[in-house]
Amino acid sequence: MARIIYKIVPASLWRQAQAAGVFDGAPVDHADGFIHFSTAGQVSETAARHFAGQEGLLLVAVDGDALGEKLVYEPSRGGDLFPHLYAALPLSAVLWQKPLPLGPDGLHQFPELTA
Questions:
Q1: Average pLDDT, integer, range 2-15
Q2: Quick one: 4-99 is in which CATH superfamily?
């Protein structure tokens, strides 16, 4: 499975996580009982489907190996396996966070991603 996984998160929510020292998820994560992540190959479609036109977002890269057995890959969109974390995200597993701006075409502009 992918070593590096990605989370799209509003910058304001991420600042709260940094202050708390842990990220326990966005409202959709709370509703579903796990924190949703995407692989490098999935994250642009995730942005288009669930964050279309939204500004003020960050892309957070996470070392999936650091999450242990609480990270589970489960079928979702079209049967594709998506990483789901059944625990809070320790900030020690975060590799980096970068702005996810909208481009002139209205789509999010991603930095170079590692699988």
A1: 96
A2: Protein of unknown function DUF952 (3.20.170.20)
